[in-house]
Specification:
Order of helices and strands: HHHEEHHHHHHH
Strand content: under 5%
Number of strands: 2
Oligomer: single chain
Distance between the termini: 30 Å
Largest sheet: 2 strands, antiparallel
Structural class: mainly alpha
Number of helices: 10
Helix content: over 70%
Radius of gyration: 18 Å
């Protein structure tokens, strides 16, 4: 058995194992939880990122067609790891995002497309999130978090921080920033009784006990997966410039 087939089988088993989870009412920002105007506004805000994401993916695949497997694996990782949800607050939940892996390997704009596809499938197949709140969920998980992760990773790389440490910090903070944006979205829509700052602080405090340890776990998992890819998918990583950049 070739090394590539072996790593794909390991990833498949890992995905199936993580997918075995009981049905939960927890989700991203759920269907109907945001007023219609906010749903439309967040969706419009996402549109430019989608166009840049499609362009980025097209350019990468045109240059290196065999990267489609690695890109698909990044999307599958997002789907599986973000489906493991822990109830955190009425109308939302805490979960790992998985977007750091794709952001580090392919850039933040590419992850906006992967994240949109994942969130759409989760809304339709798993009742996680919703179609009306798709724009808001996409902006927080597939745009804001990955961009912060990517920028932090690039900054730490320029500062010659240890590669594994850079990956861990970037993936961890990208996850946490996703929930900062989610708390912001919820506070903007639901602050009439307490005021915006109080509502924002309240949502952050409720998310923190579950999200901080989850973000740390996601950082560790991301490091482990990239180490595995360095061993078994080195040619693909060289094609996207990851290994050259790391050196």
């Amino acid at each position: 058995m070739s090394k590539k087939k072996l790593v794909l089988r390991i990833i498949s088993v890992f995905a199936v194992f993580l997918s075995i989870t009981p049905t939960a009412s927890a989700m991203h920002i759920m269907e109907g939880y945001l007023p219609a105007g906010y749903c439309i506004a967040w969706g419009i805000l996402c549109i430019p990122f989608f166009f840049y994401g499609l362009k980025s993916i097209k350019e990468k695949l045109n240059a290196h067609r065999n990267l489609i497997t690695l890109l698909a694996m990044s999307g599958a990782f997002i789907f599986v790891i973000s489906s493991l949800k822990i109830p955190s607050v009425t109308g939302s939940c805490s979960h790992m995002t998985g977007t750091g892996l794709g952001a580090i390997l392919f850039g933040a704009t590419s992850v906006s497309i992967l994240g949109l596809i994942v969130l759409l499938f989760q809304a339709i197949l798993l009742a996680h999130g919703g179609l009306t709140t798709l724009g808001a969920n996409t902006f927080s998980m597939a745009i804001a978090g990955p961009f912060v992760c990517y920028r932090i990773y690039k900054l730490l790389s320029r500062l010659n921080v240890n590669k594994k440490t850079s990956i861990f910090i970037a993936a961890c903070l990208g996850d946490l920033f996703t929930y900062c944006i989610t708390a912001l979205q919820l506070a903007i829509a639901h602050h009439a009784d307490t005021g915006f700052l109080n509502a924002f602080s309240k949502f952050l405090i409720i998310f923190a006990p579950t999200q901080i340890p989850l973000a740390i776990i996601e950082g560790i998992i991301t490091v482990i997966i990239i180490i595995g890819l360095e061993n078994y998918a080195a040619p693909e990583l060289k094609e996207i410039g990851y290994l050259r950049e790391a050196k």
